Amino acid sequence: MNTALDSSIVLRNNVKVFGHGTQVLMFGHGFGCDLNTWRLVTPAFEQDYKIVLFDYVGAGNSDLNAYDNERYSTLEGYAKDVLEICETLNLKDVIFIGHSVSSMIGLLAVNMSPEKFGKLVFIGPSPRYLNDVNYPGGLERDELEELLEIMDSNYLGWSSTMAGHIMGNHDRPELADGLASSFCSTNPEIAKKFARVTFLSDNRADLQNLKVPSLTIQCQEDFLTNEVIAAYIEGITPGNQVTLLNSTGHCPHLSDPTGVINALKPFLNKA
Amino acid sequence: MDQFSKYIDPEFIFNEAPIGFVSFKPDGEIIKANCTFYSFFDKTERELSSANFLKLLTKGSALYFQMVLNPLLNLREYTNEISLSFSTPTENFDALFNAKAYKDEHGKVIVVNAYLLKIIDRKKYEAELLLAKRMAEDSLNSAKKIIDDNNEQFMKIALNQSHMIRRPMANMLGLISILKDIQISEDGADLIRLLETSAEELDTQIKEIVSQTQLPL
């Protein structure tokens, strides 16, 4: 292995590895957050699994200088990062657990190198967010533009949060905690590009080519996706099953970690 | 003192504060709100009693809330000065959203207390700033395009000119080589050698120009 390459990829994606098992659980965060999003779920698996967490480039503590407009102009670029992390850490038989857009990034990574993966878990997935003929993606083009405008208008908010972090506010202890202040911090310019790539993606055809067993975990009242999309995925994806949670929202791993853990365990244990 | 007591009563302050206050569950169900909040939506407490906070947001803001603010409230437990858009039956309005989340003993968020500050003037300035930013970006892109176009034009001219100059140059070099085979005086031969050296230098210069513009010969 090339040590320089290894360290550069580990730094690029802020890769963290822990846990006492050999079977690998690799968690991919969704849009708008970072690896901290998994903090309520991973303790349930630390004893029995090797846990791999990472930040996509532009999110959390990833290397912002590594952002490449061309590479990250499609979800395939992010999927290549996932594969490079697997290669760098020499991971095999990986169970990839992706939230939101990470579900499709995981799908692309598995389709590119199926030999590296054993199973795939989608949490709140959508293969296409925009409405299409006979496909209720849920989002119209003008609604996507409005989201991008909201992100624009919160640019200053992001900057002030980061400035507080950098200046080490002594009068605000919550900001003195570097971890807390960097929660879900994403460079706003990159976040906008990531949003565009995410919401304009269409991975419906990729689902049909999946060659490993997969599980969809879906909440109620999720603004971004719903049970109809989960059923659609189940219908066209070989080896996919759905678990519906009673909890609401788009981030059950934060709002209902126990529900997510209970949904994951039987799927992980299944031969 | 009695004349003030009404105005410093906590319930009065809560309801009449010039900011909208709302408490809601993580799924958006409104538990309590003040009169100012209801007035933002031209509704009474009774009319909004079963409302869902998330459904008062425009679609773009609701998406932003679910994707960005919900994780923040879960992980960091507070969020400050987030600009969100709300829809009412008559018009949309923008407000700054400040909130604090409270968790149960298992670390699960059970309630979010938030206040909303309507922003009208700030939003206008912000719109102006964003417009200026977009115009600056467009100008930059236009300038880049002009430079690219000019470069492309220059390359075309350089290509044409180099070919136009090289053709007579090649003829001259050919004629010089024929001249060298003709018997002429020593002085004439010296002049031909000087002519040949100059022509070769000029040819080298033309090739250099072509090479630097990366044009095929």
Features:
heterodimer, A: 271 residues, alpha/beta, Rossmann fold, 7-stranded mixed beta sheet, 42% helix, globular, disordered N terminus, B: 217 residues, alpha+beta, Beta-Lactamase, Helix Hairpins, 2 domains, 5-stranded antiparallel beta sheet, 19% strand
Describe the structure.
The complex is a heterodimer of chains A (271) and B (217). Chain A is built from 12 helices and 7 strands. Mean pLDDT of chain A is 87; it is low at 1-5 and 158-181. Chain A is globular, with a radius of gyration of 18 Å. Chain A has a single domain (3-269), classed as Rossmann fold. In chain A, α1 (3-12) packs across α2, α2 packs across α3 and α4 packs antiparallel against α8 (188-199). Chain A is 42% helix and 15% strand. Chain B is of the alpha+beta class and 217 residues long. Chain B folds into 2 domains: 2-119, Beta-Lactamase (2-Layer Sandwich), CATH 3.30.450; 127-212, Helix Hairpins. Chain B contains 7 helices and 5 strands, in the order ααββαααβββαα. In chain B, strands 2-1-5-4-3 form a 5-stranded antiparallel beta sheet. Chain A binds chain B through residues 30-33, 36-37, 39-40, 100, 139, 143-154, 157, 160-161, 174, 180-181, 183-184, 221-224, 248-251, 254-256, and chain B through 26-28, 54, 58-64, 66-68, 70-72, 74-76, 78, 80-85, 94, 107-109, 123, 126, 130. Chain A: Residues 24-195 form the AB hydrolase-1 domain. Chain A: InterPro entries: AB_hydrolase_1, AB_hydrolase_fold. Chain A: It holds the Pfam family Abhydrolase_1. Chain A: Belongs to the AB hydrolase superfamily.
